[in-house]
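tool_call: predict_structure(chain=1)
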Amino acid sequence: MSALFCRTTVRAFIRSKSLRPDTRRLAVRTLSSGVGEPQQTTESAPPPPEETWEDVPQDFYDIIVSGGGMVGAAMALALGSDPVLLGRKILMLDGGPRRVLTQVPDSFSSRVCSLTPGTVQLLQDIGAWDHINKMRVRPYKRMQVWDACSDAMITFDRDDLNEDIAHIVENDVILSGLMQQLDGMQGLVDVMFDTKVKGYKLPSKAADGEESPWARVILEDGRALDTRLLIGADGPKSLLRQTANIRQMSWSYSQAGVVATLKLSEPTVNNVAWQRFLPTGPIAMLPLSETHSNLVWSTSAEDAEMLLQMQAEEFVEAVNSAFWQDYKREAAVDSAVQTVQSILSTISPGGTSARQLPPSVSDVDGDSRAMFPLGLGHATQYVKHRMAIIGDAAHRVHPMAGQGVNLGFGDVSCLRQVVSDAEASGEDIGSVDRLLEYETKRQQAVIPMMAAIEGLHRLYSSDNPALVLLRSVGLQFTNAIKPLKNEIMGFASK
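tool_result:
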């Protein structure tokens, strides 16, 4: 009885006062991958809304998630399904319409994600996976990665193909499954569709009596919403990040990703993901069905434009050539790679994998081709008082490892736990000192992944013989040491 009284008293105090924790900052605040000097940019915040705190009608929520994409919707569901947060007012704001597939279209979308086991587990926990799985998913059991400038390759699989490595799912299907689950959360999570945000106002840690202690969202229709915790899932150009004056370290690769839906020459089991490192960037073919695969081709912006303008037959020929044709080779490199392979085969006869050939492509779906710019971005802070950013608002990576959205879903899992623990202990869920636990844990996971992806990008963006030899021998040794491969898979599967 006394515990309940204390907890109720603390909650009442949190609602009526601004807590003033000390100013210590514990988290990592910089990104240093050791692979080039990033450009540090401070995005100028838009001018604040002219309204003062008292000028606008207000509604109060315990937590507001700003952004209704895949990561934002998952965040709202994760909070709404947490029993510790039962009874708390949770709101998700979405600037677009409600996006639910009434039926799965016959054609595939060219925008897909490779969902890791950790992400699938999260989607199961929040109740969305059953909806997604009933629509359309394609698991794959093996991944083969090889170098166009040598014979080096590596394969990944689990327990001799008895387990799935990941699932390829269209973005539209994931979002539809999340929205369907949100439909069943009425009373636990409020959702406002077609609701545009005009601006944000964030309180200082030491708000006095004349300043509201809450974060405020100003909507374009004039409404104002106050909250104990504002979560920004508003993408790489995050307005919340800009308003909070959080610096972003970023650079462009001067490259573009080309995506398309490919029709295979003949039906196949199609349970392998293929990736080849070309001198101009990686090309990947991901399974969608027995007859179709998804293409993700990273190349120069000029080549990407050319690929979009090609006739279908010419485009198909370019894709097949990229996977099959021989590129410039150095005799010394080939000789060294063959020698290393021979030694490894003798030392560990079962440690190397047989090379498979990717399926050939016969056609490309009509309007499936699209391109998008490639770059890297990382916010130096993920939290401030009464706010946190997740997903692309906090970090953006090269698509070569398929980790972008999985890192965002990892943010969701971590932030839900931090908020739940704070609520359970009667603490202020919007306190920056409490939120720093989320920032620290996620930066410890995100920064090494970003550094590894950036390192691979730079290592494989050259046909210099010395670098080709270095990466080829490294790839061969990694492929031969199964415990090391398992560690890599475990790291990427979280």
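agent: The longest helix spans residues 432-459. Proceeding to next step.
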